[in-house]
Amino acid sequence: MIEKINAQKDLFILEEGVTYLNCSYMSPMLKSVRAAGLHALEMRASPWDLSATEWFTNAETLRSLAANIFKTSNDNIALIPSASYGLAVAGKNLNLNPGKEIIILENQYPSNYYIWEHLAETQKLQIVVVQKSETKTLTENILEKINANTGIVAIPNCHWMDGAYIDLQQISDAAKKIGSYFVLDLSQSLGVLPIDIEKIAPDFAVSVGYKWMLGPYSLGYLYVSKRWHQLGEPLEYSWATRYGSENFTDLTNYVKEYRDGARKFDMGEFSQINLLPMAIAALQQINNWEMNSVQSQIKKLTDKIITYKESNDLPQNSEGVGHIINIPFKEVNTNKLRENLKENKVVVSFRGSSIRVSPHLYNTEEDIEKLFSCLDI
Q1: How far is CA 281 from CA 62, 65, 216, 284, in A?
Q2: What's the CA gap between 219 and 174, in Å, rounded?
Q3: Which of 165, 209, 129, 216 is nearest to 320 (CA)?
């Protein structure tokens, strides 16, 4: 059943008086997620009650919930500990001829940079950095860099520092036209910005689980295109990813076959007895919301910031998502600003020469007004 979207503050654990506008950093915890975590700890305290099948059933439940958010089959989802893990899986499987190019963004998040730096060094590739411009969108700037020498396009759906939007369908179409691999880091968009991953059809796509997916730390998601299910190699070789691993009595009857689909790319110990129930509770809540409504509801808050920036003659993004926005500094005493925010218990992130604001459904217009009062220095 899809819930009507309005103020959802009562679903979250929030300290009285704190105005939390920093979901891009880490989401506050849903009450249902904490309850699931406490119950999981109680279950872990009785290992004699854990059956062999229970090592796998929660993983399949979570896989299915994540697949629904990606808009794909659960066979295309692997469970991973971090975005860097999933990107390392991609890097292990993408082999290019020397001289080919890897396209990334200027100031791209480090986890989606270091793997490509390593790949460029080991395969003698060139990294091409797409910079922002005042006259074109980020999408347009990326499209200009894609050419016959492009080997990999590795980008997010929006920039993590200011929410600048990237039209993934346009990029996908251009990449496929010249035969380039396409890899996505959706850590700052999955769970809050609608996506149809099957239509965009990247080779790999990752997301952490503790930001907009509202779950615990150290449990994330990897989409793997069907083309890599048989062809691809996992990052590690866990017993639990092998065919028939549910049968504990025959584990030393070693097999070469893997479990179906993207399960071969699951991290070791993907059963995550303590964390999986928490992630399940988080994704159940997200799936109960309608994603377009979530985005539009949050955008009502960031639209107020757009108006504030206009009235204060501050630079605007030519195109931005509804859940992340920046406020550039303009001759501001940043030490005084930090003090103001701390004294008023307003939590945002400082990124470069801007404040990054990233609200969610637990925020209200009053929260945005409280932020504005802190900026008036």
Answers
A1: 9, 10, 10, 5
A2: 32
A3: 165
Mean pLDDT within 103-107: 97
The tokens for 322 are: 């509804």
The answer to whether 91 and 286 have CB atoms below 8 angstroms apart is no
- Grouping H, G, I as helix, E, B as strand and the rest as coil, residue 12 is strand
pTM of the model: 0.95
Mean pLDDT over each residue of the chain, to the nearest integer: 94
pLDDT > 70? residue 7: no
Distances (CA, A) of 62 to 67, 272, 284: 8, 11, 9
For residue 339, the SS3 value is helix
Residues 257/321, Cβ–Cβ less than 8 Å: no
Q: Give CA–CA dist 116/293, Å, rounded.
A: 35
Q: In DSSP terms, which residues pair with 242 in a beta bridge?
A: 258
Query: CA neighbours within 13 Å on the CB side: how many for 55?
Result: 15
Could you tell me the sign of the dihedral formed by the alpha carbons of 71, 72, 74, 78, in that order? negative
pLDDT digits (tens, 9 = 90+) for 138-168: 999 999 999 999 999 999 999 999 999 999 9
Give mean pLDDT, residues 339-357.
94
